[in-house]
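Quick question: what would this complex look like in 3D?
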Amino acid sequence: EVQLLESGGGLVQPGGSLRLSCAASGFTFSSYAMTWVRQAPGKGLDWVSRISGSGDTTNSAESVKGRFTISRDNSKNTLYLQMNSLRVEDTAVYYCARNRGDNRVELQHWGQGTLVTVSS
Amino acid sequence: EIVLTQSPGTLSLSPGERATLSCRASQSVSSSYLAWYQQKPGQAPRLLIYGASSRATDIPDRFSGSGSGTDFTLTISRLEPEDFAVYYCQHYGSSSYSFGQGTKLEIK
């Protein structure tokens, strides 16, 4: 059974940093692209970043470029999102999701999310 | 950047009825990269449809997707009580994803 467990969320001041983790199990982690998607309270889904199975290719939304970095450690079956220079508008539940394949774009499995609150 | 516009914003129907949800893209997109998700309150989204018309694993056949170019549709043939939720379309193109703003399907 595919399992994705996010951690690392919490309360942080504007300008601060957080690193989110997503521990994966139940599949061959390195064979799948992984994606972060966020959802502000009461709002819709907002794509953040995507990384290929090998970690060689990453893409990020314009709103987080230069501030957020997606990475993965295939030896630990873990996905990361390093978030710097956080803004109030980054407040959201952050989901990690497994793509349906390394070259697939649809998000087949999702974690339950971790809440990031940016506030002074 | 491609913008996805979903309509209606809210759809009020009764169990047993047919639901038709629309997703319109601001320019023509590849059907291969069009997906639909369902999200219930307090839960993560669930993949329903990918490639515009292919059902994801374990998705009941009352869910179907269609469309091409700029107009895509998610149809639920006979609504079950568990189908009342928010539905999002999603597209991938030019190395980025975009989501529609969602359609809330509520019980009438």
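Answer marked as accepted. The two ends of chain A are 40 Å apart (CA to CA).
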